[in-house]
Design brief:
The chain crosses the membrane at residues 6-27, 47-70. Keywords: Membrane, Transmembrane, Transmembrane helix. The chain has helices at 2-32, 36-70. It has 71 residues and is mainly α. Helix 1 (2-32) runs antiparallel to helix 2. The longest helix has 35 residues, at 36-70. The mean pLDDT is 92.
Length: 71
């Protein structure tokens, strides 16, 4: 079950890295300015990526939990 734990850790860390990327992109979109519609369009793309990152992190944490229980 060690493989499941290590795979879960890798998924969780990649999800967290993607979340950090989303934070940076959202801050950059707000800093660049523009009209409200421009900012809203940029942030909508980041929101979709943010949800994917949260799902990846959740799957990774679930894998770690299951691997720890089965060990």
């Amino acid at each position: 079950m060690d493989i499941l734990i290590y795979a879960g850790v890798a998924l969780t860390l990649s999800g967290v890295a993607l979340l950090i990327y989303c934070i940076v992109q959202a801050a950059k979109a707000k800093k660049q300015g523009g009209t409200d519609e421009d900012i809203r369009a940029r942030l909508q793309r980041v929101i979709a990526l943010n949800l994917v990152a949260l799902m990846i992190s959740a799957i990774g944490l679930g894998a770690v939990t299951i691997g720890a229980i089965l060990s």
